């Protein structure tokens, strides 16, 4: 019974009770009462009560499940105003809105990766909803509609998903969460049938390994950092050696080029000097030297050395 239905029924009951009270009061005071007035009031009250039991308003996001004498109608009622048989037909509301259900807020799910590493999960949120066309089936067949997805199904889905992933992917929420959703949806479909409960999203807030594995990962990461640092230093050393070698090569090439230029210049100078020496010039220079230094001239093997005047 919803709020509007309850209000109308209460009004009808109050009218009927007021009419009865009025009649009793008049009888007690022995005052004359027109019989038509209380009868009309009582009738009005009864009619109002019947009216209050003749309709129900189903709010948005809900469907209604109708039952008569314990028999449930498989066709759910849509939201809005719906009429029913007074006192015989009962309408129960089923929530079809998306609902966030929390799991393992204060406890852990322990599982393994594909490489047999122990991994722990906690603080899981499952967003789900009952599909409207299956509301009547849920009402008829499920005892506790507030616990449609038990913790055991969630834990089983998380474990099944994690065992297919390596240590890197199992801590990647964009990988583990969709896999968990898929496995959980398959489990729900197996339990209630397809298109009964839809899993919209799974969020796993806390994922981690045991302490021993974390220590191994930390050491491995440190070793990787040291290795990468050494590789960088080695690369820098090689690059520096190559740069120094190139500098020396360029310096040697420059020195060789300078020597070549110097040799070419000297050869050209000597060539110019050689080209400028004629026989007449040589004879002239020799004659001048004899005069300046007193040189003598020797001719033949038995020549007599004489001094030029």
Architecture overview:
There is one protein chain. This protein has 309 residues and is of the alpha+beta class. It has 4 domains: 1-53; 57-95, no CATH class; 99-209, 2-Layer Sandwich (Tetrahydropterin Synthase, Chain A), CATH 3.30.479; 225-263. The chain is 54% helix and 20% strand. It has helices at 3-28, 36-52, 135-141, 151-162, 167-170, 173-192, 211-276, 279-293; strands spanning 55-58, 62-68, 71-72, 80-83, 89-95, 99-103, 109-112, 118-130, 197-209, 296-297, 306-307. The strands form 4 sheets. Strands 6, 7, 8 and 9 form a 4-stranded antiparallel sheet that branches. Strands 3-2-5 form a 3-stranded antiparallel sheet. A hairpin with a 5-residue loop joins strand 7 (109-112) and strand 8. Helix 4 crosses helix 6 (173-192). The longest helix is centred in the last third of the chain and has 66 residues, at 211-276. It is rod-shaped and about 185 Å long. The model has no long low-confidence stretch (mean pLDDT 81).
């Amino acid at each position: 019974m919803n709020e509007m239905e309850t209000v109308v029924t209460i009004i009808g009951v109050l009218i009927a009770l007021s009419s009865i009270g009025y009649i009793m009061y008049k009888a007690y005071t022995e005052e004359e009462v027109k019989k038509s007035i209380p009868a009309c009031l009582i009738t009005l009250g009864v009619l109002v009560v019947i009216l209050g039991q003749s309709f129900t308003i189903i709010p948005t996001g809900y469907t209604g499940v109708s039952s008569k004498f314990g028999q449930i109608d498989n066709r759910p009622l849509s939201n809005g105003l719906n009429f029913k048989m007074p006192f015989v037909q009962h309408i129960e509301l089923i929530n079809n809105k998306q609902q966030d259900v929390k799991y393992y807020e204060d406890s852990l799910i322990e599982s393994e990766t594909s490489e047999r590493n122990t991994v722990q999960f906690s603080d899981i949120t499952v967003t789900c909803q009952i599909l409207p066309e299956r509301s009547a089936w849920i009402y008829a067949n499920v005892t506790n509609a507030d616990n449609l997805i038990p913790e055991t199904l969630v834990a089983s889905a998380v474990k099944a998903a994690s065992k297919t992933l390596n240590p890197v992917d199992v801590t990647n929420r964009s990988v583990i969460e969709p896999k968990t959703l898929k496995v959980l949806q398959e489990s729900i479909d197996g339990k209630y049938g397809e298109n009964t409960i839809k899993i919209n999203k799974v969020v796993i807030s806390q994922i981690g390994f045991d302490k021993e594995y974390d220590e191994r990962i930390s050491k491995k990461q440190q070793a990787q950092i040291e290795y990468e640092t050494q590789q960088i230093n080695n690369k820098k050393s090689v690059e520096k050696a190559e740069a120094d070698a190139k500098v020396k090569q360029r310096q040697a090439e420059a020195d060789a080029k300078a020597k070549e230029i110097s040799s070419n210049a000297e050869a050209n100078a000597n060539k110019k000097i050689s080209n400028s020496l004629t026989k007449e010039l040589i004879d002239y220079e020799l004659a001048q030297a004899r005069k300046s230094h007193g040189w003598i001239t020797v001719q033949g093997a038995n020549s007599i050395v004489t001094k030029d005047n």
